[in-house]
Write a structure and sequence with these properties.
about 0% strand; binds fe (iii) ion
């Protein structure tokens, strides 16, 4: 096994846990305001890097590079198992492996009687983290996503770290709309690069549009939780974001009474994958 985690987080879940702690519904107000005080220094350093390096130019380069889907050919189940070999410093007794997080999410969706494509989306939503195996640093794999090419909203976590972003010195990127037209639609907006956009590129020909919105925008907390970019959304995005919001609690809060057992569940999920995907897909 190789250690492919490249950055200040001890595990990629450290970022997920941080988001969870920010959005906990039962959080005391004061505790919420003070989330920074309790934040792990690794998380802070992670956001410092993320906000400094995610520029429009960087995003366009990564989209061009990975959009070709020439990195790999692999089946979806194999990708899940491959992702599970990510080595990190998280505690194996309390922290979930990648495949367990995937299955807790999908099993919670299944238990609520949602359509099969929704269950499948829960299972695969984080497969874009395969970016780690291409040597991408953590700040280009996870983190809340945000539009580039326009002013950074102060609703984005740690907004002060954008001072170090080269785009902050480009006046045309610093108006509210930047390079975009009012309500141009998310299809024309470039979000910071990470596992959401990568998996969208991989799955865009195989899943219903609702599923693709969930995959592509699940880390876009400034949009789907803070409503900070309504001036870029069109009516269709608004409709589709209701699906992103439906998905989000399963990602953040699904806690099964027992840990899912990948071995027992594998036959169900390989059938489900085969319903939507060919044997191998391009990555
Ligand atoms: Fe994710
Ligand atoms: Fe997730």
């Amino acid at each position: 096994m190789q250690d492919v985690l490249n950055g200040p987080l001890e595990s990629l879940e450290q970022w997920d846990d941080f988001v969870k702690s920010r959005y906990r519904a039962d959080k005391e107000k004061d505790e919420f305001r003070n989330y920074r005080a309790g934040a792990n220094p690794g998380v802070e350093e992670f956001y410092r890097q993320n906000h400094a390096h995610q520029t429009l130019d960087f995003v366009l380069r990564k989209k061009a590079e990975y959009g070709l889907l020439k990195k790999n050919r692999m089946g979806v189940w194999d990708a899940l198992e491959h992702l599970n070999t990510l080595v990190d410093d998280s505690d194996p007794d309390t922290d979930l492996s990648q495949i367990e997080h995937a299955m807790q999410t999908s099993e919670a969706i299944r238990a609520d009687g949602h359509p099969r494509w929704f269950v499948l989306t829960g299972l695969i939503h984080d497969l874009g983290k395969m970016l780690c195996f291409e040597g991408e640093p953590q700040w280009a794999v996870v983190g809340d996503t945000f539009p580039v090419g326009c002013r950074h909203s102060d609703k984005i976590v740690y907004p002060e770290f954008f001072e170090a972003n080269a785009d902050s010195k480009v006046p045309k990127y610093q108006t509210e709309l930047g390079i975009y037209e009012p309500h141009c639609g998310m299809h024309d907006v470039h979000l910071s690069w990470g596992h959401d956009e990568y998996l969208y590129q991989v799955t865009k020909n195989f899943l219903p549009e609702e599923a693709l919105y969930m995959i592509r925008y699940h880390s876009f907390y400034p949009g789907h939780r803070e409503n900070a970019y309504d001036h870029l959304l069109n009516d269709h995005d608004r409709e589709m974001f209701s699906w992103v919001r439906k998905f989000n609690p399963y990602d953040l809060y699904s806690k099964a009474a027992s840990r899912p057992d990948p071995k027992t569940l594998k036959p169900y999920y390989t059938d489900l994958i085969a319903e939507y995907f060919p044997k191998e897909v391009n990555w």
